[in-house]
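Render this sequence as a predicted structure.
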Amino acid sequence: MPLLNKTRARSEAPYQSPSKRSAWSPARLALTAFFAMDGFLFAAWVVRIPDIRGQVSATHSALGLALLCLSAGAVATMPVVGRLCVRYGSKPVTIASVALLSLAVPLPAHTHSVLSLGAVLLLFGAGYGAANVAMNSAAVDLVRELRRPVMPSFHAGYSLGGLLGAGIGGLLAGTLSTTWALALSGALGLAVTAAAGTALLHGPAGRPAQAPTARRTAEAGAKPGAEAAGKAPAKPAPGVARSVRLLVVLLGLTALLDAYGEGAIADWATLHLTDDVHASAGLAAAGYAAFAFAMTAGRVGGTWLSIRIGQTRLIATGGLTACAGMLVVALAPSVAAALAGLVLVGLGLANIFPLAIAQAGAAGGPRGVATASTLGYAGMLIGPPVIGFLADAVGLPLALTTVAGAAALAGLLPFAVRSRRPVAASH
């Protein structure tokens, strides 16, 4: 039987429930620490952007171009890292990537021009993009090893690390200089990399990531005894390879639609609450905090929900929940309703991205993770400017309704993904 059919059955059937000891193995704890450190380091940089902007005397447009270098570094690196994970294994690449990110974090504090800041942010973005692809590839391997859908818990670690980084960075902003704050963050990142890296490399899933599903399918269809005779496995059938690529792209689009909403809310929700809903600055900040906490809580419960209702239903439910919540946020006449809507959006979007990346990794290996991550990151990039252009044309409330549409579409795409699996298997 082709393995694509088995993949489908395994993704929809209840997972085995391993012992608590095996579920929270040292390797899983170490990988969660890497996700948390990734979120912490990125947040440590974000809270210092105003200080860096003053340091390099950048206008809004110049700062925007410098920040674009960060995104360019990440997007350019992601496909390369996918190939490195295939060749060397995702765990060593994870360790090297987070070490690079930790070394790059202190550098913006030492820039004194927009040009030098942009150059530094290219390196920072390369470390950030590499870390995200490698960590997710390692997580896909560990999910396969545990036979338990624990991918949301890793992304919960990222969200929690981001909250801690933003909270600690904000508290220390008035007492610790930008240079010292980023230097200490980088040192902490290196220390966590050294400690968690040792545990990760000695984990049970230390082998390189498995080949993409298309290759495994071709191997399953090879003549009996070919492997025993020492012959090279058959190349993937063209139809199977195309179907796997289509699956990965559809899952990447699901991640893109989710990230579109996350990016839009991060940049525009506070402004919408103050200008359109007439909330105070404190309540507007509390609104984004409520969204972030709801997303973290949703990811903490994501594994349990994946087992109970299945990944496809969880993504669909999340997309529809986020759609309803975003319509409330955009069109609500009261602050209380808008805040409640943001909680719904956070809960709804929480598990779409991690589950889409996990399924892309199961279908296409590390390269599938790289493709889906690149598409997802593109959604984070295009969300804020698209909302800005639409806000100038039709107003911010109506512009934000596009987030509701994107969330609903993200919830429906996995059904198209599931319907493609039997077609792929039939080749």
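Summary. Residues 1-21, 205-234, 422-427 have pLDDT under 50 and may be disordered. The chain has 17 helices and no strands.
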